[in-house]
């Protein structure tokens, strides 16, 4: 702001002309009379202006601190929520893995029973040579299918 221009006017009779403003400095010292009253008023106004700016600055800093503290609390709450959800997710993942294992056991047993139900032939019983296995199996089944020994005993 240029020297001598302001929107705040000072009351007359305080050592400054009535057209002088609060937040500006008086004319250059070479033009102003250097009387003790003038110097006292000058430093008094300067001190008051600095005090006012300091007060305004402290008020702004206080508001910023409050905002930062509020944001800190929000971040703390979000972190707690995230930690809780992470723990829940880990617990659910472990539960899913356990259920998948439990589901596989009955599935494998069912598959094995299904294979045994196919004329008592367990899976893999045929070995590497399927033709010789069938050649052994067919005579046993033809003789008496109801009373024939289980094929896995052959």
Structural summary, described in words:
The protein has 154 residues and is mainly alpha-helical. Helix content is 62%, strand content 0%. Residues 1-22 have low confidence and may be disordered.
Report the end-to-end length measured between terminal Cα atoms. 109 Å
**SS-based structural class?**
mainly alpha
Which regions contain 5 or more consecutive residues with pLDDT less than 50? 1-22
| Radius of gyration of CA atoms, rounded to a whole number | 49 Å
Strand content: under 5%
By DSSP (H or I, 4+ residues per run), the number of helices equals: 2
Query: Strand tally, please?
Result: 0
For the sheet with most strands, the description reads: none
H/E topology pattern:
HH
Overall shape: it is: rod-shaped
Mean pLDDT: 76
Q: What level of helicity do the residues show?
A: 55-70%
Region (Disordered): 1-29
Keywords: Coiled coil
Coiled coil: 61-102
SSE blueprint and pairings:
Layout: H1 36-117, H2 130-143
């Amino acid at each position: 702001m240029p020297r001598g221009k302001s929107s705040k006017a000072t009351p007359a009779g305080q050592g400054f002309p009535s057209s002088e403003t609060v937040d500006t400095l008086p004319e250059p010292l070479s033009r102003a009379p250097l009387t003790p009253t003038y110097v006292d008023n000058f430093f008094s106004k300067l001190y008051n202006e600095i005090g006012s700016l300091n007060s305004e600055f402290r008020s702004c800093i206080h508001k910023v601190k409050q905002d930062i503290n509020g944001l800190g609390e929000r971040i703390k709450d979000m972190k707690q929520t995230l930690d809780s959800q992470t723990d829940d997710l880990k617990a659910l993942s472990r539960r899913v893995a356990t259920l998948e294992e439990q589901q596989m056991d009955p599935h494998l047993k069912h598959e094995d029973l299904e294979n045994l139900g196919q004329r008592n032939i367990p899976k893999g019983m045929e070995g590497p040579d399927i033709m010789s296995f069938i050649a052994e199996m067919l005579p046993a089944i033809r003789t008496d299918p109801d009373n024939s020994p289980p094929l896995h005993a052959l």
